[in-house]
Q: What sequence folds into this?
């Protein structure tokens, strides 16, 4: 039997970086997915195949020695094989509809899809159980993860989350399209987070004023999401981008990408850690084509809708 599970990509609509110092951020899952297929084997090996490479190890080898690309998946496979006292090995195939390393949550989506797929080989597990396994797996590479990315992958939709671990799924689903464009610059979240810490230490007053402004902006954004007020929401995105520029996590390439859509989209900002990665531009049917065209000449880009399904599972 093949057990198949998929989980969506995520973007940060508002609040990246400032969330690290309190306040809230708004996350949203989008309709681009990572799919994991797994099957038990008689080889006694864990075999993984993905766009990022291949790996074959005896199932008794510690996940800790593996490359970070594979570590969470090996962790999940070993945890499930052990829990169910299985003599089998397992083959795992990962395929992604979106790029990794550019702030679209590929590692969380992979952890959730792998947890859904591999656990499915051993019977039914609840979404809550899968979320727990996925967060534990993500901790093998990001010790301090808040769990918010995995949570949005499991449940889908829009999430409001705060640093103290409070996570709330919003009931309403606004109707908009996002254009996601990839700068092609791979970034390191931990490096950018520490750059911001240095900025905060040097410019304490400016930083705390920006934190306060961001907090207010997020409250406004939540109200706009509820009313589906795209004009105002777009302006808030552009304003959020200005705050991100002030803390120096944007760069020339991201700013020029945002500039390309200033006359077509409702608003645009970088998403995730910044200093590379992706930008998002807010659109609806009326301006989607134009916004895509403005970016497509120079950048890999695609349109995305909010995903409300989260984790999906099946077997074959
Ligand atoms: O690179 P991403 O999409 O995982 O975004 C990181 C978000 C930060 O706010 C920069 C860091 C964090 O832990 O919240």
A:
């Amino acid at each position: 039997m093949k057990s198949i599970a998929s989980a969506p990509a995520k973007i940060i609509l508002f609040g990246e970086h400032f969330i690290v110092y309190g306040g809230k951020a708004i996350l949203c899952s989008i309709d681009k997915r990572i799919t994991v297929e797994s099957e038990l084997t008689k080889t006694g090996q864990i075999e993984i195949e993905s766009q990022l490479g291949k790996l074959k190890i005896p199932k008794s080898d510690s996940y800790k020695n593996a490359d970070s690309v594979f570590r969470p998946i090996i962790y999940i496979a070993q945890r499930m094989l052990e829990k169910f006292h299985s003599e089998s090995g397992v083959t795992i195939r990962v395929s992604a509809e979106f790029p990794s390393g550019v702030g679209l949550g590929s590692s969380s989506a992979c952890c959730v899809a792998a947890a859904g797929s591999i656990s499915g080989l051993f019977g039914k597990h609840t979404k809550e159980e899968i979320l727990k396994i996925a967060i534990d797996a993500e901790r093998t590479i990001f010790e301090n993860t808040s769990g918010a990315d995995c949570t949005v992958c499991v449940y889908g939709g829009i999430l409001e989350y705060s640093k103290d671990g409070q996570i709330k799924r919003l009931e309403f689903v606004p109707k908009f399209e996002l254009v996601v464009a990839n700068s092609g610059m791979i970034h390191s979240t931990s490096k950018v987070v520490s750059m911001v810490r240095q900025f905060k230490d040097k410019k304490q007053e400016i930083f705390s004023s920006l934190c306060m402004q961001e907090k207010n902006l997020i409250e406004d954004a939540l109200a706009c999401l509820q009313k589906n007020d795209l004009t105002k929401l777009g302006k808030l995105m552009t304003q959020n981008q200005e705050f991100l520029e002030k803390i120096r996590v944007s760069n020339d390439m991201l700013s020029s990408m945002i500039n390309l859509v200033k006359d077509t989209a409702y608003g645009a900002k970088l998403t995730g850690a910044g200093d590379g990665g992706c930008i998002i531009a807010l659109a609806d049917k009326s301006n989607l084509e134009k916004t895509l065209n403005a970016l497509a000449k120079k950048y890999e880009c695609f349109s995305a809708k909010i995903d409300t399904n989260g984790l999906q599972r099946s077997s074959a």
Q: What stands out?
A: The chain has a mean pLDDT of 95. DSSP finds nine helices and twelve strands in the chain. The pocket of PMV is lined by residues 12, 16-17, 19-20, 103, 189, 193, 272-273 (CB under 6 Å). The chain has two domains: 2-172, 177-304.
